[in-house]
Amino acid sequence: TLDTPLLEIRNLTAGYGAAPVLHEVDLAVPAGRIVAVLGANGAGKTTLLRAVSGLIRPSRGQILFDGRDLCTVRVEQMIRRGIAHVPEGRGVIVELTVEENLRLGGLWRGRRGAERAQLDEIYDLFEPLARRRRSPGHQLSGGERQMLALGRALIASPRLLLLDEPSLGLAPRVIAQTMELLRTLRDRSGMTVLLVEQNVHGALSVANDAVVMSLGRIAVRDSAARLRTDERLRHAYLGF
Ligand code: ATP
């Protein structure tokens, strides 16, 4: 129904080995919104994305996508369900060309004609990738690698995009372009985005809502507008 969030995390406890990193996290992400996940290094933001995409398994709690439990879905099936994850560091395979990297994102489909059309859509969206389609990943600039990582995720037309620090290491102009692209994807295609960022200003400029994580818990959740403007919240949770 309209009221069911696209992604719902309930009472999630998860981590690596015996010690949990995330403690009793609850988070609902409505369809068609961008939710920023903020917080200091080590707060658990990356771990949260890994749990949603099935790279680590919760020790307690539930993760529901479109009302269905994700906890039994295998990682390689996530993309088929409509979930794409762009990891920290982006995961571009630098020995492969731009086009080979993009094809990896569409591999699960296995339909050649459809793949060509999808590639062309990505090249329309990211013009520099079209020019460099035969170049190996290691020849790309940081901004181009970010485009490639995003393009590889988008080629499968995900409903939920999990993005881990897309602005890391990029020039301010490229960061602004990335945020603008996320806005376009949300507004034109209704894409839902969980956006982990250290770049608070960039993230709050595009997000509808934001959570601030601290020590593996969600310390605060509010609209991005309030977190930007409410001095008390900013001082308490964002340090500016
Ligand atoms: P950062 O911005 O530094 O990535 P973060 O908020 O994303 O921070 P996480 O990467 O989720 O934080 O890390 C949370 C905690 O989990 C940290 O204490 C970290 O040391 C620990 N951790 C992260 N990855 C692993 C791992 N593969 N094995 C064991 N512990 C890990």
UniProtKB/TrEMBL annotation:
GO biological process, one term: L-amino acid transport
Source organism: Mangrovihabitans endophyticus
Cited PROSITE patterns: ABC_TRANSPORTER_1 (PS00211), ABC_TRANSPORTER_2 (PS50893)
Protein name in UniProt: ABC transporter ATP-binding protein
Keyword Nucleotide-binding (UniProt): yes
Classification via SUPFAM superfamilies: P-loop containing nucleoside triphosphate hydrolases
Keywords: Amino-acid transport, ATP-binding, Nucleotide-binding, Transport
GO MF entries: ATP binding; ATP hydrolysis activity; branched-chain amino acid transmembrane transporter activity
Pfam family, one: ABC_tran
Family, as annotated: Belongs to the ABC transporter superfamily.
All copies of domain ABC transporter, residue ranges: 7-240
